[in-house]
Amino acid sequence: MPHRRWLASVMVMVCVTVSAASSVARADNNQSDASVEVAAATPTATSPQLTWSMDSLLPPTTGTVRLPTTKANTLGFTLDIELVQQPLAGSVPVNIVARSTSTFAADRRLTLRFRSDPEGQMPPTNGLLVDVPLLLPQGATTARVTRYLPKFSAGYQYRIAVYEQGRPLEDCVAKIGSFDTDVYRNEQRLNWLLITDTDDVDYTKLPDLRPLMLRDSRFATSSFRNSIGAPRDDPRFYESAFRNGPDAVAGQSELPTDWRGYQHFDLIIFDPSAAQAAIENGNFKAIQQWVLNGGSIALYDSESEQSFVDMLSLTADRPKSLSLNALSREQMFNENILKPVDEGWNQKIWLRPLGAGIVFGLQKLNDGEFPSSRHWWIVEHTLGHRVSPMLRRGVDPILGDRRFSRWLIPGVAQPPVYTFMTLLGLFVILVGPVAYRSTAKRGRTYLMFLIAPVLAIVTTALMFTYGILSDGFGTSARVRQMTWVDGASGNAGERVQSTYFAGLRPTEGLSFAGDAEVMRYTDGSDGSWEELAERSPAILGNVRVEAQQQIFDSAFLPSRQQRQFIVHQPRENIGNLSIETQKADPLAPTATITNRFDFALRDCIIRDADGDYWFAEFVPGNSEAIPCDTIERSTSSKIIGDLYNRHRPMEQTIYRSQQRSYRRMTRDLMVNISDQIQHQSMSQSEVLSGSFESWLNQRMQLEGEIPHYHFVAVSDVSSDVVLVSGTELVDSVRYVFGTLK
């Protein structure tokens, strides 16, 4: 405990490496480009090897742990386990390889249990038990799988155990990971990944990355500038630096095919040849999903703005460049940021929002050099809050905060004050004027010693019963689903904020999509960072991670409490919206809408390429040529504002409680991180609710307008984001917005 007190008080966590049980060479890592389970092929005499598939892990990674830990192996197989060094809360990618000593004589079903190590994660009260099922099919010799472990704490150390038929296997217990809980360092700096056009990285052929590396305090010294040469001159230094993180370089064969594999980075960098390679081999799909959900990419060496747009299939009708107006609207920087951009830099850097993220295009330099430090300075400061994964998501699963109360289910898990006051009033009347006078007339006032306690018990029972019955025994939810659509591809990123209340906790638990990143959101009342560091370890619950779903057990939704979750997930081929206009007669323009979504849209507002607004009250799903009306700018502004305010997250004061002032104690990590990032980037804006919610608030409430070639509408909440069957939705909404096709 003394080391926790010291770490918590200084608030800068030191990485204390905990050695893994044993390390072996990383093997068979790039056999397949799929990260989810596939059906086992029928074993044959010629090809029994590949039964499952394993995805790539981006560096930095831990050493591989091999089980069983003894030389004598009586289990008939070995397990190799490796995970990504992920000090932040979020998703931890893990690779598991099972190899039979001969062939599996029969199907064997294993469960690998990852238990948060209280000595390796902060706070120790946020522990999880994560079970990963693994099937070893009969006749196969190898099984591989990649899974993403949810994590609501800082640090990434686990205790691993292996179970078969509910029984732990001997000599299959180990530790893996390290104790790195420096939340501030990882949330405030720009962590980048450079992708090459070759399958594997040739460090001698890397561009001169020193302008990019000089941003980092580790390298921003005169000794580094003078002693370290370009990659072709000192490839070993660069290989060591990038394999140990936090920045990294990866080849095409090392790229994950799950968007969550990029979550510990803030910016992906590549040139046109690397981008083209990723598009052709299918790796760009996960990158695009990551950007739609808040990530950012930079394409350098672009020949022109048009080639940059064409290369990444971006919508053409977006801000044409990183102009003063576009930059100020995007991040509202002060003149210290705008001045260098105004000095011709807006002709060298192009900006396109893509979903909740940003895409940068950097013009090719005449001498073919890597972009300068000033290029990367502008990119980093334009990103603003996006350099922090916590601020991008808009949720802190570690401490939580009072913003939790903005999206509660009204009227449940709250005391019915007026009903209780009525019952107490009746009690007073019955005990006083009624019972006392009645007994006094009969000369039996001594009966009051019996009547008063009985009436008190009855009143208490009535209050308790009413409180239970008024909330009911079923499950209710309030869902805020935000789907951000890229019209060019028909893909989308999605944020779902959902609050649940169960009269009786559901025995089946909560089921999330297999490719979703799940965060719990609490009200921040458990204590400060420093206080939680002193408490005894605790496990929040058990999570079962499978290919198609993640099942959180009923401990995450106890009876008669409101629990909230934030989910980010991709939506592939969701559809798009397009508009056809006829403006030959300026006095009577007409337009029709084509809706390629499977669901209907309501209160649909469209702004075309010319900046004109159109409105349709109802657009059926999978419909064509639906007429819409032209509306004036003043009318559109009112409709847009009302559409947001109708479902605006409002803080419920009933969940407020007086808090004492704690000097030097951290009670809101997001505010602290945001303040520091604003200071570093000299930004005047504060984003605490995530990139999705920030777009809605900025465009719809504050500005009352949407960009050219964009749309916004509302729809019914999709059934696949409702976590418990039979849930009653209360005051829920789905915003669908983005670019047109």
Number of strands: 29
User: Whole-number average pLDDT?
Assistant: 84
Number of helices: 18
State the low-pLDDT regions, or none: 1-52, 318-332, 334-340, 654-659
Question: What portion of residues belong to β-strands?
Answer: 25-35%
Verbal overview:
There is one protein chain. With 741 residues, this protein is of the alpha+beta class. Helices cover 25% and strands 27% of the residues. The strands form four sheets. Strands 15, 16, 18, 21, 22, 23, 24, 25, 26, 27, 28 and 29 form a twelve-stranded mixed beta sheet that branches. It has a seven-stranded mixed beta sheet with strand order 8-7-4-5-19-20-17, with no helix packed on it. A hairpin with a 6-residue loop joins strand 2 and strand 3 (90-100). Helix 13 (417-441) packs antiparallel against helix 14. It is globular, with a radius of gyration of 29 Å. The chain starts with a helix and ends with a strand. The model is unreliable at 1-52, 318-332, 334-340 and 654-659 (pLDDT under 50).
Quick recap:
This protein is of the alpha+beta class and 741 residues long.
Q: What distinguishing features does this structure have?
A:
741 residues; alpha+beta
